[in-house]
Amino acid sequence: MNTPLRFTSLALALMLSSGATLAADLKIGVSMSQFDDTYLTYMREDMDKKVKAMGGVDLQFVDGRNDVNKQLDQVQELIGKKVDALIVNPVDTEATVKITKAATDAGIPLVYVNRRPDDPKLPAGVASVTSDDKEAGRMQMEYLAKKMDGKGNVVILLGELANNSTRDRTAGVKEVLKNYPDIKVTQEQTGAWQRQKGMDVTNDWLTQGRDFKAVISNNDEMAIGAAMALKQAGKKGEVFVAGVDGTPDGLSAVKKGDLSVSVFQDAKGQGEGAIDAAVKLAKKETLPEQAIVIPFKLITPENVNTFK
Amino acid sequence: MFASTTASASTLSPVSGTTNDAEHPYLLEITNISKGFPGVVALDNVQLRVRPGSVLALMGENGAGKSTLMKIIAGIYQPDSGEIRLRGEPVVFQSPLAALQSGIAMIHQELNLMPHMSIAENIWIGREQLNGLHMVDHRAMHRCTAELLGRLRINLDPEEMVGNLSIAERQMVEIAKAVSYDSDVLIMDEPTSAITETEVAHLFSIIADLRAQGKGIIYITHKMNEVFAIADEVAVFRDGAYIGLQRADSMNGDSLISMMVGRELTQLFPERDQPVGKLLLSVRDLSLNGVFEGVSFDLHAGEVLGIAGLMGSGRTNVAETIFGITPSTRGEILLDGTPIRVSDPHFAIEKGFALLTEDRKLSGLFPCLSVLENMEMAVLPHYAGNGFVHQKALRVLCEDMCKKLRVKTPSLEQCIDTLSGGNQQKALLARWLMTNPRVLILDEPTRGIDVGAKAEIYRLISLLASEGMAVIMISSELPEVLGMSDRVMVMHEGEMMGTLDRAEATQERVMHLASGNPVH
Amino acid sequence: MKMNAMLENKPALAPRKHKRRLPTELSIFLVLIGIGLIFELFGWIVRDQSFLMNSQRLVLMILQVSIIGLLAIGVTQVIITTGIDLSSGSVLALSAMIAASLAQSSDYTRAVFPSLTDLPVWAPVIAGLGVGLLAGAINGSIIAITGIPPFIATLGMMVSARGLARYYTGGQPVSMLNDSYTAIGQGAMPVIIFLVVAVIFHIALRYTKYGKYTYAIGGNMQAARTSGINVKRHLVIVYSIAGLLAGLAGVVASARAATGQAGMGVSYELDAIAAAVIGGTSLAGGVGRITGTVIGALILGVMASGFTFVGVDAYVQDIIKGLIIVVAVVIDQYRNKRKLKR
């Protein structure tokens, strides 16, 4: 009796101590596709806040500078530092196979955040916390289509052409338009995610005397630019403007009526979800599902005050 | 007057040497070549011919058309009309390569070597010796180069980087490269313009060897003595026209000059009285670490002090130190008896110094700017109010200077690059004269300019001295130093070897000192 | 003297005054007109309306390039001295961030400096210009003192300034700027600022000592020094001016977009260099004019407007833009070469 008891207490002590070190020294490496992005910056901050509230977790951020190879190098470096878990916001969703393999080979749990890898089946120990970009496009368009009574011309402001979000959000918009044959896309131009470019392109459209009832933008920044151009041309209120992201600037634009609608991509939900998933995987707990989807929320003038 | 000897077949026939082939006595024959550029006729119906085993000197003032003709022969330009015959066969060269492959090689004035490649690589560039794997066979290349250099008695290591070679040595490499093409006709464009006398001697011995091997050599030069030293024949061009061709030994300096300028030049160096103004500048024990040591001299108003020495003897460095480009490490400079420390050209200009630099292209000209802008640069601080430049006043001044110095330019707005060397030099001299200098330092003031312009520069120097300006003139051309200077200071490897008065300065004595032997 | 009299008889070069009068920018101006006419043609074919006969659009074309144009005026002067400035886009971002942070309105709860809101408009403007000037002075001093290539020095500044712009707010955009500040970027204000600055530096380069020295240093640095020009000090001035203009561009850009963001002006330095080079500024130095640079910038603007006007596929535009940049410079060089060959 004596011996087993001793063993049990030893085992318990070991467990406790190992548990304690786990809680205190959990290191998570976070590889961001780029720091220079308003939305991702918010997500980064939300992750930081979440970790501070939890305690016992250290985050290390690296900036992939929108470069696939650079990101892979950085991920390998983090693996070399023996982090307990990895959170990756991939530069290119088609090029995640190597990252996945590097992490699984090293036995380090991996969580993709914000952008889901194109790889349909992720191996065990790899999870994703994302929102479906197509959904954002669908929500934007569905709302506007109703406002437009199902007819009229629309123009689309595209994000950076090489980005998945550009492709997917636009694809979502077009999916909805299949149901509205009287709504036509007359122009698609890139504003490279930037407010100023969005303004310039919209200005060009206006001087051409193009007739459009709505500007559908892949993000809030370009939508704000479009709204500024419309305001200057005295067309505020005549043309609907839709954005995506729900950044503070975007929210206040909806409040002021500059934007008709935006779609809230839940930076906090994604960031915190990713931290939760990573911590759970590091502690060898199981996740309820491998692909966690954080839903988008429609921001309209009516509900804008509930966001902040 | 020789100038009246026009280009006709009859003037050519008297000059007949030994011919081993009655049908094709000439290696290269050029007939009735004309070439025009928009607005200019560069060559008007000219002719020339080169015998095998001879050196043909080509002379003429800048802009006479020598270079254009040579570029036509070397395939760089295409003639508008006329014919080139090589070994009796008419030829047309579409490119420099075609000319090279037919046996015509040109050694350019501006050397075309890659400084970061070895001598061997430079010589065989584009036709490297290959081994079985089609890789460059460096050993074979080295062997061929060593053989070639040996044949030409050029004592250089084939693996040496060209960047480490002196200008003269690079010239030798260019010659070796030309010879390596088995060229029958070699064109040399002012090969001695930047090399010392001993190197010239070596070059001439190589030319003599090539002549003995039956090559035809066209030798462009401005230097009279070279013509008499190596040329068998001399052809003269003027204003795009062929003036005549004579046996070199039938000519003398005066007749050659009059052929070139179309008139008699009684005297190249103007007569000057020995002036003794007040003491202006004293230099005591001036030194620049590792470059020159212990230079001392006095300079009076109205005096011309010549500084002679070989290239690399430190002459130019003395000038640059006095002017503040490279401030001295020891010694003092006294102006009007007061010591001054010249640490910057800007300060030197304020104190009344002016320096016409040795290399026009490197440190004198602003090639893309107009004649006006080139001239006004040193006086701008005095012609600007609130930052704005007084355009009108400057224009008047520059026009005046152009007239005084006889700068030939279509307009002051003309890009200075398009002017002839002599006119560029005069414009640069004007830049300095506009600052009203008290001490004018001239470093190689007549390099690369033609006889007519030289004479004008000499006239100007003597005029300026007579007005009380103190002049320091650095030159590699001994006749020039001796002809112009009241006293001659001679330097050798950074040391002042001695100063000779006009009366005691002879070519021999100066050379003696310049070679590092003290005069007894 | 007999000799002199004879020398004067030597025929001078034939006067070619009238040829010289043709401005060197002519060819590139023709390229601009040509591109405009191509779009005009397409306009009638595709859209049944005129591309050029629309004053509003003409203003817009300039508006779109006025910020890049400001950078280009600075970089033109740097290139004339045989230098290059790669940092202008990043300095723009840094200056935009700092200026914007001092121009936030008090009814915004997330202001960077909650105690420094609703400042008079000169405060952010001076701050933005000052940051640009400082960055430029650092560029110039490093180049003048250490003698490292401008490419490297300004590359370093490009990376550091961008980093600093991000670090300043941790990547957060600086928004909700007050109206007196955003007025700087409203309507045609950027166009006016751009054109005024262009005129100022056109005059400065052509009629002042500053301009003459700039060309002299670019034409032949050694000769410039021998002519008594303080080359180092002048280089610091030139780079400082380029920095100042980048700072001004940052102020205008942030006022126009009503936000300061660390990602602003990415790769603008390359567009600015392109505008200068299209406009005839030689990367070899010593050659270049502000009028040419303005035309170069306009070519970029005409292309941007023309592409959306004709409705060129967004994915194809950059391919064409790159081609036009190269072709424009080739045409310009070809013409200049023919002119030089006498």
Topology:
The complex is a heterotrimer of chains A (308), B (520) and C (342).
Chain A: H1 2-25, E1 26-32, H2 38-54, E2 57-63, H3 68-80, E3 85-88, H4 97-106, E4 110-114, E5 126-130, H5 133-147, E6 152-158, H6 164-177, E7 183-190, H7 195-207, E8 214-217, H8 220-232, E9 240-242, H9 248-256, E10 262-264, H10 267-282, E11 291-293, E12 297-299
Parallel strand pairs in A: 1-2, 1-3, 3-4, 4-5, 5-11, 6-7, 6-8, 8-9
Antiparallel strand pairs in A: 10-12
Chain B: H1 9-12, E1 28-37, E2 40-50, E3 54-59, H2 66-73, E4 81-86, E5 89-91, H3 96-101, E6 104-107, H4 119-123, H5 138-151, H6 167-180, E7 185-189, H7 197-212, E8 216-220, H8 224-230, E9 233-238, E10 241-247, H9 253-261, E11 279-288, E12 292-300, E13 304-309, H10 315-322, E14 330-335, E15 338-340, H11 345-350, E16 353-356, H12 360-363, H13 371-376, E17 384-385, E18 388-389, H14 391-405, H15 421-433, E19 439-443, H16 451-466, E20 470-474, H17 478-484, E21 487-492, E22 495-501, H18 507-514
Parallel strand pairs in B: 3-8, 3-9, 6-7, 7-8, 13-20, 13-21, 16-19, 19-20
Antiparallel strand pairs in B: 1-2, 1-4, 4-5, 9-10, 11-12, 11-14, 14-15, 17-18, 21-22
Helix pairs in contact in B: 14-15
Chain C: H1 2-8, H2 17-20, H3 26-47, H4 55-80, H5 88-101, H6 122-146, H7 150-169, E1 174-175, H8 179-182, H9 189-207, H10 209-219, H11 221-226, H12 231-257, E2 259-260, H13 268-278, H14 290-310, H15 314-340
Antiparallel strand pairs in C: 1-2
Task: Tell me what the structure shows.
Chain B: GO terms for molecular function: ABC-type carbohydrate transporter activity; ATP binding; ATP hydrolysis activity. Chain B: It is an enzyme of class 7 (translocase). Chain B: Its EC number is 7.5.2.11. The complex is a heterotrimer of chains A (308), B (520) and C (342). Chain A has two domains: 132 residues, Rossmann fold; 132 residues, 3-Layer(aba) Sandwich (Rossmann fold), CATH 3.40.50.2300. Chain A is built from ten helices and twelve strands. In chain A, strand 6, helix 6 and strand 7 form a beta-alpha-beta unit. In chain A, helix 3 packs parallel to helix 4. Chain B has 520 residues and is of the alpha/beta class. Chain B has two domains: 235 residues, 3-Layer(aba) Sandwich (Rossmann fold), CATH 3.40.50.300; 238 residues, 3-Layer(aba) Sandwich (Rossmann fold). Chain B contains 18 helices and 22 strands. In chain B, the strands form five sheets. Chain B has a six-stranded mixed beta sheet, with helices on both faces. A six-stranded mixed beta sheet of chain B has the order 16-19-20-13-21-22, with helices on both faces. Chain B has a four-stranded antiparallel beta sheet with strand order 2-1-4-5, covered by helices on one side. In chain B, helix 7 links the parallel strand 7 and strand 8. The longest helix of chain B has 16 residues. By secondary structure, chain C is an all-alpha fold. Chain C starts with a helix and ends with a helix. Chain C has a two-stranded antiparallel sheet. Chain C has 15 helices and two strands.
